[in-house]
Every structure is written in structure tokens, then in C-alpha cells.
């Protein structure tokens, strides 16, 4: 039996090619009076609709709107655009949907919609048939919006780049065609389209290391690529690019938005653009500007194919692809913004409106509008878009920008939101990596840890704690620390207070990060105490003023070796803590080689060398600081991936909720003298040195040793095993843990590993290498390498000198009294030798038992400490004796360092 015509059963909008050579087209507009499908053809080509359409001519007595209402199919020629527009009157609304069957359709066909209806902006109704609208489900896009009066549904003018007019004024009758982008049809019926697709990597959460990058910025300056491939999807898929990522060792590439974007009105008025891409123009179309010029010239199908090929290449190289998506708002902005799609189709249905003033939009995003996820059809639209990217493009996961906005019902957040259930229950999407940014700008917008299974979430508490511990607490800006041992232990242990919320949810749900696209880079965190966003043109008023950063005595770039050395080790301390903590680590592209944005912590509008990664250091014949950091970080990534201690997927179970405790023997804690912390130690702000032991029944244990003071310090490690250091943050400065009271130098080869393979590289690479070598010989040594070698010599001969001038030296005696009596903070980890997890608060009946001092989380995630007294630090005689006869369990850790010790 033949299926009936599509309009008889279709419930999804879209453009569907049919076997008769035409297409069924469906679009949603619940409150429109009439909708037209508009097809664009070149004048110098025969029209496909000559027999079906009535030609329209300019008539001073009849308006364009009256003419198109008169005929089912009509055509008009727009000479100045060299375009023929054919309008097909659609049938509807049928449950909010409008339908039409095109007798002919083809791949690459340009089209859009015009919609007529009421004009009542004070009640949120803004239909205007003079505005050419994109298809929300369109798979391709062509062109861009011009800052012109025609792009706005209300009467206005543009004077000196500023839009003047009232959004509540009269309707504009200026045609927008030619000044706004149009949709492009892509024929996806090929049954062989997925043949040859590589297997998806399907990296388990416990092995995942996320690497956040911008498609363009990553390769815009890449010297290994020909000019045509730089800053493109194809450039990211290039074999040399993939080899670099493999050498770094990350597993999952998280791309800043690659859905088609449009600059916000504010930026257009100021002559700037949205570089990050958090201003979506089309949720089904990839951003054309990241494609090669050749693909752009061929059209939307070629652009999309380049994206598909990029994803395939990443899969073949073993990487997952996670896509940052922005479903919380659109590029149309507030009511004063342009009309390119949703506003013209159905403003009331797509956007949230203020209850007391429906002519104004709710804005929990800071971008002027908020999509209405209380509307089932908006939820369906988002799910359809996500499924398309996952199924057709091959995306492995999504990170949802301002995720709280997507889960607001009647304005309030709930983790029971229908959209979240739609994602969980979808057979395709529910098995992908789904990551939430757990905040927005609305009421009670900070919701870290509250999304539940299967969502992972960005952990801002981890970010702030680690920055504070390694930067603010050591740069001399105050006389006391800010971070208690209980807080830093909780973050290292997977933030049980935030993520041990659902049965089966645990540490892997915490996306740990220190830096991301929004904020300082890792290097800038150690160079700048305050933001420097002057280039953004907002008088340095944009961007966060709370960065928990430090400059170590000098704001910005310096040639002071002591400052440089302290900064490098601080950066490695943060990177080490990130990659050695329980949870899922996320790195920012470029942090592994000292990338800087010159102190700009909000570079969203900087599509230039401020945000493009600088790769010049790659081809130096000697190891620059960038190369040393890269090797140090990649070594640490490899070590983390080699350990199977980072899953904690059994963090919390439903059995725990009903009182059936699941024993855990995963974590033990020690002070430098080898004793377990006492109650007071968890709250003493001077307790900054400790050992965290991760235990395993199936492989060797590891100890993560943190020396948070600015002097070398002895640590007594557990005596039941022999330990060897595998990684130390101080190795970036040529220092290494040693037995007894001496820190060892870490000699290293100064020849760049990259240079060993440069002879097989392209002519461009060889030329760069030769130029670098010649410059080194002519100048004796470059400033950067001179600083590197001087730093190495200094650090090897005077182990603690590099910190003395730029860090606050802590006294051995901690303050007594008040700090030790601070009230226990619910939800933080305080592992003990008592091996009992106690829960205070309303969930006191939910608890867990900890064997061997390991930490297990309950509903509140609180772990108590035993009350046993703790021995003081070893006396001078003991230290002297251990220096002459070092115990195999006593190691001296470099000042201000984090070290990974492995069981032998």
C-alpha cells in the first residue's frame, strides 16, 4: 500500500525530497494567517516552475502583499539581485503546521519563507511578509545579514552604524531579500551515505580527557598547513594536526559552536564580530566561514561534506567529537534585533515573553532572548537538531551552553524538565556524552551538580578552588590562605558534595577544568591579576573581574627569571591537579604550550592573533619553554590514561539510600609526617601539604603528593610499599623529588624532539627551521632560549631561590583557636582512619562505610575525620638523621609542587 501524501501524516517540519523529483515542505507557525514557501532561481536560467506560476509585475495600485495573496503560485523578478522568486502558498495551519508540495526540487536549491499575520508588537506578535525567513530545519545556508533597515521588521534607519527606530512602531515594508541569509536544500536520500564511516571511538568516561578548541583559531596560524587549509574544518582533519593531538594524548575534542552563526546587533553596530560563535543562526547548518574557500564556492552541500570529512578523520585517528551547542537563545537578540527566522515565523511560540508585559522577552541568557523550552515544539526542534548532528554528521556528544535555561519550567529550574527527559530517553542521544554548563543569568541560576544522570557538568567549584590554592594563596596578596584541606580534598576526590546525588552518579560526572574559552588562559592566570580587555572596545568593563589569578609580582610579560620560573611551576601545579584529580578533566587548547591572550579574559569578539594559537615555537632547534611544557603535559596525560583508578562510577548507589552500605577502599589521606589528618587539620588554613593515596584491587596504587608551601619538604609515604616518582610539576624547572633532604636536578635533552623529524616535513617547515637555526647562530641565542637555559642552571644550583622573591613564605606555626573551631562544612570530603562516613543534615539516614581510610560519598557526600592527635613535624635531629640515612619511604618534594608517586 502506498503511503499517503506527506502532509497527511507529517508531524515534523522539514524539507523532504520525494521520488517524483519534487519535495514536501513543512514549517511550523501556530498563529500565522498565511505562509509562503519562496524558491530563488537565477534569472539567466530557465525556471523550473514556468508552467505553474503567475508572473507578477510592479503595480502602483496593488501592493506586493496583495499580489501574493491572489495566486496559489506566483513569480516575480528582482532585477537588482538578478534573482527570480517563486512563491508557493502553503496549506494550514494543521496543528500548527503548514504544508506544500513542490513539483520540482534539487540539491542546492535556495529557499525561505514569508509569513503574514497580525502586527501587534506590544503583545509580542510581529508577523511581516516583507521579511525573507530562514527555514529553522534548513541543512544549508548561504549569505549573511547586512546591517540595513530591511533586516528589521519595524520601521527604522541605520545612521553611522547605529539602528534608530522603535521596535513597537510601524511595520517595515522594505523587502529584506538580498540583505539576509537564505536556506539551501541538501538531498540526503543516498542510502550509501554512511558506507565507509569509521567506528566511533566510544571512549569511556573514566578514560576521557577533553580538549576544548576553536576550529578556526586552532589552525589559523598553523605553519604546517598550506594557506588554503588554515583555520578550516579540513585543516583540523589534516594528518599533521591529528598527529599533534595524538602526541598530546587527549581523547575527546570539544569544538566551540560550529552551527551557523550571526553577529549580535551590538557587535554589528560596533564593527566587530562574534568569534566564539555563541549566536546561532541555524541549528541544522554548519558555519560556512570555517570551510575552505573551495567548499564555500561549491555551496552548502560541499561545506557540510567538509564537516563530515573532518569528523570522520577525527574518528579514524581515535578521537571523539563533542560539539558545543547554544539552544538557550538565538542570534535575533531582543525585540530591537533583526528578523531572520524565528521572530518572523512565530515570536510567541519560540521565545519566552514576560508575563506582565508580553511585548518584552524574558532574558536569562544575557543575549536578549530566551527560547521557550516549555513549548513542546521547541523541545522537539532541539532534539531533532541534535539527532541530525549525531546521526548524519557523526557527533559523539554535546556540551549545552547555559544549560539551566533549557531546564526552566515557569521560570524556575527543575532537573525533571521534559527536555532533560527527552535527552535521557532518546535511544541515540541518551547514549552520547551530554555535558551541561550548569548556570545561566536567571533567578537562582547557579545549579552545579543538580542535573542528574546521565549528564556531566562543568565544575566551577573545582576551577575556583584550584586557582585559589595554587595562585591567590601563594602570590603574597594576603597573610593567610583561603583554602581548607577539606575543600581541596573534596575537589581532588571528585566533588562528592556536588555529584554524589543520583544512584550510580559519581566523580566522572564532574567536568573538572581550570581554564576554558571564557576567561584567562593558563599562562595568563599566572601573568595577570586583573583583566585587560581594552581591545574589546567596552572600556574594560566586560568579562569577569573575579579570576582568582596572580601575577607573581609583575603584571604581564617579564624577563625576570624568578618570576618566570614561579609562573611556570604554578601553571604546572594547576595542570597537574587537573589531570590527577578524580573526575573528567578538560583542557583548553594552547594551555599545553603557554598560549596567551595578552590578559584578555573575554575574547569573544577577537577573531585575530589574540585568539589564534601561535605555533612559531614548534620549529626552534632548541627546546623552548613551550616545548618543555608540551612534553611535561603530554607525559602527564599518558600517565593518567595508563591508570584505571579514575572511574568512581560506583560513587553512590540506591542501596546506600536505604542503608545498605557498599564498602569502599579507594582513598587514604596523610600529612607529611605520615599520619592521618586530625579533625582540626581539615579546617586549618596553614595545612597545605598532604598525600592522597588512590588504592586499587587490580593494579598498583598511586600517591598524589601536594607540597603547598614554598620550601622543599619531606614526606613520609605509606611504608607498606615502595614508591617512585613518575611525574612532578617542578620538573618544568629542572627539579625532581629525592630521598632524604635533597631535591634532585632533572637533566633533560635540550634538543627539540620535533626537530628530529623536520627533515621529512614540507618545504615551509624546513624553511622555518633553517631560519630559526640561523637566527640562533647569529644572535648567539634567542631571548627565550637564553631565559630557558639560565632558568635551568639557576634551578639546579639553587633549588628554592626561584620562589624566594615572588612568593609569600609561610611560618611553620599555624594560628591557634578560631580556625580550628570552624563549623564543619556539609558535603566535603574528610577521609579518616576511623573508616566511617557520617552524614549530617536531612539525609542523616544515608551513610556509607569506608574501609582502609578511603572516601565514599553519601547523599551529602560528607566524610568525618577521627579525633586522634597528630604528631608534629619531624624535629631537626630527625631530619638530619634521615638526610644521612634516608628511609626508602621518605621523599623530599620540591617547593610548591604536586607529584605523582607510583607503587613499585
TrEMBL record:
A GO term for molecular function: amylo-alpha-1,6-glucosidase activity
Top-level taxonomic group: Bacteria
SMART domains xrefs: Aamy
Composition bias, Basic and acidic residues: 810-819
Disordered: annotated span: 796-870
Gene3D superfamilies linked to this entry: Glycosidases, Immunoglobulins
Ranges annotated as spanning the membrane: none
GO biological process: glycogen catabolic process
Domain spans labelled Glycosyl hydrolase family 13 catalytic: 212-640
InterPro entries reported in the protein's UniProt record: GH, GH13_cat_dom, GlgX_Isoamylase_N_E_set, Glycogen_debranch_GlgX, Ig-like_fold, Ig_E-set
Compositionally biased region (Polar residues): 820-836
UniProt record similarity statement: Belongs to the glycosyl hydrolase 13 family.
PANTHER family: GLYCOGEN DEBRANCHING ENZYME
Name listed for the protein in its UniProt record: Glycogen debranching enzyme GlgX
Organism the protein comes from: Bifidobacterium scaligerum
Amino acid at each position: 500500500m502506498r503511503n499517503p501524501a506527506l502532509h497527511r501524516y507529517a508531524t515534523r517540519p522539514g524539507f523532504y525530497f520525494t521520488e517524483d523529483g519534487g519535495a514536501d515542505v513543512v514549517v511550523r507557525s501556530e498563529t500565522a494567517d498565511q505562509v509562503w514557501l519562496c524558491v530563488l532561481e537565477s534569472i539567466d536560467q530557465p525556471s523550473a516552475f514556468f508552467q505553474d506560476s503567475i508572473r507578477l509585475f510592479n503595480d502602483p495600485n496593488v501592493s506586493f502583499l496583495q499580489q501574493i495573496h491572489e495566486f496559489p503560485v506566483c513569480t516575480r523578478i528582482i532585477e537588482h539581485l538578478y534573482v527570480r522568486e517563486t512563491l508557493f502558498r502553503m496549506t494550514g495551519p494543521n496543528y500548527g503546521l503548514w504544508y506544500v508540495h513542490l513539483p520540482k526540487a534539487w540539491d542546492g536549491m535556495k529557499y525561505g519563507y514569508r509569513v503574514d499575520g497580525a502586527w501587534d508588537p506590544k503583545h509580542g506578535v510581529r508577523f511581516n511578509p516583507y521579511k525573507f525567513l530562514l527555514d529553522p530545519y534548513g541543512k544549508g545556508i548561504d549569505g549573511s545579514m547586512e546591517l540595513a533597515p530591511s533586516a528589521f521588521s519595524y520601521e527604522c534607519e541605520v545612521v553611522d552604524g547605529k539602528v534608530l527606530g522603535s521596535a513597537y512602531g510601524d511595520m517595515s515594508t522594505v523587502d529584506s531579500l538580498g540583505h539576509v541569509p537564505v536556506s539551501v536544500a541538501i538531498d540526503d536520500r543516498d542510502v550509501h551515505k554512511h558506507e565507509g564511516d569509521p567506528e566511533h571511538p566510544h571512549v569511556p568516561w573514566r578514560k576521557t580527557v577533553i580538549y576544548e578548541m576553536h576550529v578556526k583559531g586552532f589552525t589559523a596560524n598553523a605553519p604546517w598547513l598550506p594557506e588554503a587549509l588554515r583555520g578550516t574544518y579540513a585543516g583540523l582533519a589534516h594528518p599533521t594536526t591529528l598527529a599533534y593531538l595524538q602526541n598530546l594524548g587527549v581523547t575527546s575534542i570539544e569544538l566551540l559552536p560550529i552551527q551557523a552563526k550571526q553577529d549580535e546587533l551590538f557587535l554589528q553596530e560596533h564593527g566587530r564580530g562574534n568569534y566564539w560563535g555563541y549566536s546561532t543562526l541555524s541549528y541544522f547548518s554548519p558555519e560556512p566561514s570555517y570551510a575552505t574557500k573551495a567548499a564555500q564556492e561549491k555551496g552548502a552541500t560541499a561545506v557540510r561534506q567538509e564537516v563530515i570529512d573532518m569528523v570522520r578523520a577525527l574518528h579514524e585517528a581515535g578521537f571523539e567529537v563533542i560539539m558545543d551547542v547554544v539552544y538557550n537563545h538565538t542570534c535575533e537578540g531582543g525585540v530591537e534585533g533583526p528578523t531572520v527566522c524565528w521572530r518572523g515565523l512565530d515570536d510567541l511560540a519560540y521565545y519566552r515573553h514576560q508575563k506582565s508585559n508580553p511585548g518584552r522577552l524574558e532574558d536569562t541568557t544575557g543575549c536578549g532572548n530566551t527560547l521557550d523550552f516549555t513549548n513542546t515544539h521547541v523541545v522537539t526542534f532541539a532534539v531533532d537538531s541534535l539527532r541530525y548532528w549525531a546521526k548524519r554528521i557523526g557527533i559523539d556528544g554535546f556540551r549545552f551552553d547555559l544549560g539551566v535555561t533549557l531546564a526552566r519550567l515557569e521560570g524556575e529550574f527543575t532537573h525533571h524538565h521534559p527536555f532533560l527527559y527527552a535527552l535521557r530517553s532518546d535511544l541515540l542521544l541518551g547514549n552520547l556524552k551530554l555535558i551541561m554548563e550548569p548556570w545561566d543569568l536567571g533567578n537562582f541560576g547557579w545549579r552545579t551538580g543538580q542535573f542528574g544522570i546521565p549528564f556531566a557538568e562543568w565544575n566551577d567549584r573545582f576551577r575556583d578552588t584550584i586557582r585559589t590554592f595554587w595562585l591567590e594563596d601563594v602570590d603574597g596578596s594576603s597573610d593567610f590562605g583561603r583554602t581548607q584541606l577539606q575543600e581541596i580534598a573534596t575537589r581532588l576526590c571528585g566533588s562528592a558534595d556536588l555529584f554524589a546525588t543520583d544512584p550510580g552518579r559519581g566523580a566522572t560526572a564532574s567536568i573538572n577544568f581550570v581554564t576554558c574559552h571564557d576567561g584567562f588562559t593558563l599562562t595568563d592566570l599566572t601573568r595577570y591579576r586583573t583583566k585587560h580587555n581594552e581591545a574589546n572596545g567596552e572600556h574594560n568593563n566586560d568579562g569577569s573581574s573575579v579570576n582568582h589569578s596572580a601575577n607573581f609580582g609583575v603584571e604581564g610579560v617579564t624577563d625576570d627569571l624568578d618570576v618566570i620560573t614561579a609562573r611556570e611551576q604554578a601553571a604546572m601545579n594547576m595542570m597537574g591537579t587537573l589531570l590527577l584529580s578524580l573526575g573528567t578533566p578538560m583542557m583548553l587548547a594552547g594551555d599545553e604550550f603557554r598560549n596567551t591572550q595578552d590578559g584578555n579574559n573575554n575574547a569573544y569578539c577577537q577573531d585575530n592573533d589574540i585568539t589564534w594559537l601561535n605555533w612559531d615555537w614548534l620549529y626552534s632547534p632548541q627546546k623552548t619553554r613551550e616545548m618543555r611544557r608540551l612534553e611535561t603535559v603530554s607525559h602527564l596525560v599518558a600517565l593518567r590514561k595508563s591508570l584505571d583508578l579514575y572511574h568512581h562510577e560506583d560513587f553512590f548507589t540506591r542501596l546506600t539510600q536505604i542503608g545498605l552500605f557498599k564498602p569502599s577502599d579507594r582513598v587514604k589521606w596523610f600529612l607529611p609526617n605520615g599520619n592521618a589528618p586530625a579533625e582540626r587539620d581539615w579546617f586549618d588554613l596553614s595545612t597545605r601539604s598532604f598525600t592522597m593515596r588512590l588504592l586499587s584491587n587490580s593494579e598498583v596504587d598511586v600517591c598524589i603528593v601536594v607540597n603547598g608551601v614554598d620550601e622543599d619538604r619531606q614526606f613520609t609515604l605509606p611504608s607498606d610499599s615502595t614508591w617512585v616518582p613518575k611525574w612532578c610539576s617542578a620538573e618544568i624547572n629542572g627539579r625532581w623529588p629525592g630521598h632524604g633532604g635533597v631535591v634532585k636536578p632533572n637533566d633533560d635533552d635540550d634538543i627539540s624532539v620535533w626537530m628530529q623529524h623536520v627533515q621529512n616535513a614540507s618545504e615551509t617547515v624546513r624553511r622555518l627551521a633553517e631560519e630559526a637555526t640561523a637566527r640562533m647562530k647569529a644572535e648567539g641565542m634567542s631571548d627565550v632560549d637564553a631565559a630557558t637555559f639560565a632558568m635551568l642552571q639557576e634551578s639546579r644550583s639553587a633549588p628554592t631561590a626561584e620562589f624566594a622573591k615572588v612568593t609569600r613564605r609561610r611560618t611553620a606555626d599555624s594560628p591557634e583557636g578560631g580556625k580550628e573551631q570552624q563549623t564543619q562544612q556539609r558535603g566535603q570530603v574528610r577521609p579518616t582512619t576511623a573508616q566511617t562516613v557520617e552524614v549530617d543534615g536531612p539525609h542523616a539516614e544515608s551513610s556509607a562505610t569506608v574501609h582502609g581510610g578511603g572516601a565514599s560519598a553519601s547523599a551529602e557526600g560528607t566524610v568525618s575525620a577521627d579525633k586522634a592527635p597528630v604528631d608534629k613535624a619531624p624535629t631537626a635531629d630527625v631530619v638530619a638523621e634521615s638526610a644521612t640515612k634516608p628511609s626508602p619511604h621518605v621523599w623530599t618534594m620540591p617547593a610548591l609542587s604536586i607529584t605523582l608517586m607510583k607503587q613499585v
